Structure formats: structure tokens, C-alpha cells
Amino acid sequence: MSQLLNKQVEHxxxxxxxxxxxxxxxxxxSFAGEAGEKGFVYPDAFxxxxxxxxxxxxxxxxxxxxxxxxxxxxxxxxxxxxxxAEIARLAEAQLAAKSSKRKSSRRTTKAx
Length: 112
Known about the structure:
The protein is an alpha+beta fold.
């Protein structure tokens, strides 16, 4: 996390700024002039608005963004698989209930 403190970043609108705070999911950048200090979601802002002037830091951030995107995709796939399994389970239970109802109905008809 501290890799960004006091590092220079570029913003598409505000220009060059310096990272003054950095937490797990937020950074604050101090820009010159009227822009002042601006807060950003970390590391998401580096995928859209910010670029580190240090190529090594930028590469680490891009790697982190890639890993997060891969994790999000894996989570999405897992949720979809769970949803499909639940649909299959419900369909199987519904089929079993219908089958049981038919058998029960046949027994009642034979008994009469």
C-alpha cells in the first residue's frame, strides 16, 4: 500500500498530483491549483483516470487490477454454476414430486 505515498500520478483532467494518503481501497491525491485534493477508489481509478509516473508502480497496479478482474470473473462463474445447480435440483425435486403423486394416484385408483 505504501508504494504510492508521495508518488506522482497523472490525471486526465487535473494533471499531475501527489498521492498524500493511501488505504486498502482509497487514495487521496493533491493536485496543484484549484483542483486541490481529490479522493479516488483504489485501484479502480488507475483503470480509468489515473496513471503512475513510475512505470514499476504502474505495472504493479495494472497487475492488481488484472487479478481483481480475474477474481470477479471467477466469482461470477461460480455464482452462475451454483444457480444452475439450484435450478437442476429444483427441477429434479419437482419431477420426483410429480412421480410420487402419480404413484399415489394409481394406488388410490386400484384400491377403489
